[in-house]
Amino acid sequence: MGLLQRIGQRRSGLTFALLIVLSLTGVYLYHSFNSREPAEIALVIGEPYEAMRQRSSAKISPPYDNSIGFRIPKTDARLRFIDPKYGFITPPARFLVMY
């Protein structure tokens, strides 16, 4: 009977340790995905593309020579339109369009 009792205690100890590891992993994942401040694209009308890239915290690909098109940021980003009268900030998104 002593052997079965020790096996049961060992199993309950391993189950408890596994529960602690899984709980800590869950807390870490929740914190890492939900606590970061999203990247930001800061836009001023009339400024060069490279100036907007330098001011923004989002990773945006450099412009191609002699091309018309759009660039998609690598992560979700907020668009911050810098204007004294009509400035605004959008919710985080991957695809942002300004007309």
TrEMBL record:
Top-level lineage group: Bacteria
Keyword entries, A-Z: Membrane, Transmembrane, Transmembrane helix
Chain ranges passing through the membrane: 12-31
InterPro entries: MSP_dom
Start and end residues of each MSP domain: 33-99
Name assigned to this protein: MSP domain-containing protein
